[in-house]
Amino acid sequence: MEVYSNENEQVDALKNFFAQNGKALVVGVVLGVGALVGWRYWNNHQDGASREVSAAYQQVSSALDASKPATLEAAAKFASDNNNTYGALASLDLAKRYIDNNQLDKAAAQLQSGLQDAKDANLQAVLNLRLARIQLQQKQPDVALKTLESIKGEGWTAIVADIRGEALLSKGDTQGAREAWSKGVASDASSTLKEMLQMKMNNLPG
C-alpha cells in the first residue's frame, strides 16, 4: 500500500476521511493536518520576504512531478536553501514524490532534513508521523517507535497510538499492540477513529 495515497485530498475533505478504513485513513489525516499547518503559516507570515518565499514554495510544490527529476531537484534545492517553515513544507512534498518513486531512503532523509527546519510542534509532529510510517514500511519498527517518542501533544494521541500498535504488532508484541490501541480508544479522538482502533484490537488473536 502506498504510504501517501491521499496526498491530493482537499483539506475540507477531512470531514469525510473517517468514513474510510485502514492505514490510509490515518495517513490522510496526518497529511490533512500538515496542509492545515502550512496554511496557518502562510496566513501568519505575510510580510514582504515571507510572501516571496511563500510564492516560491507554491511554485516549486505545484511543479513537482515524480516522473520529472528536474522538478525534484528544484524542490530539493529550495528545501536546502530555506531553513524555515517553507523549507520543511517542501521536504514534506518532496518526500511524497520520493515515495511515488519507491525511494524510501530518500524520503526518510528528506523528512529528517525537514525536521531540522521545523520550529512548530505540530509541523514537527506531522514530519515525525510520516517518518515513522516510512520506517515501518522499511521494516524498522524499533526506529519507528523511537521516532514516535518525539511527538508531543494530546491531539496526536490516537494517531500515535495507531502507528505504535502497528509497530509493536510487527515485532510480535500482541499485548503491546493491544495496549497502544486501547490508549487511542481512550483518547479524545473522533468516534470513527476510535472505532477503527477498536476493530484492530478485536482482530488481535487471543
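[next item in queue]
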Amino acid sequence: MTKNSLRLDHVVLWVADPVAAAAFYETAVGLEPIGVAEYTEGTVPFPSVRVNEETILDLAPHGLAARMKMLPGSADSAGHPVNHVCLALPADAFDALRARLEEHGVPVSGIDSGLSGARGAATRSFYFRDPDGNVVEARHYA
C-alpha cells in the first residue's frame, strides 16, 4: 500500500439497510464486508465493503444524514446517490462478477467496449444497480 500518494480512499453510498447492503455486496458482487457486527452492536455508525487493499465503500444509513455537519448542507446529500461507481477488474473476475450477479437475479446492462476511464479505453464494461438504486459499473481493461 502506498500511503503518501494520491489515491481514492472511500466512497459513501446511502443505503436503506446497511446490513442488507453489505450482504448484497458480499454475495452478489464478491466484496469483503467490514464492520457489520460492530454496526449491528451499535459501536460504529455504518459498515463498509472492501474494494481492494486501498479502497472501501461505506454503506451509510439514511438516518445518519442528520449527523453530517462537516459542511453546510451536507445533510442534504442523503438520498442523492452519485451517478455511478466504477470497479475495474481482471478479465476472469469481470466474467465471474457478471455470472454471479445473474445467478442472484440482478439485472445487468449489455456489454459496452471502448469506454474511456482512468486507465484509457476499457475492453468491456457493464452496469448494474444495488438494492438501493446505486449504479455500479464493472469494467475490464486489456
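[queue empty]
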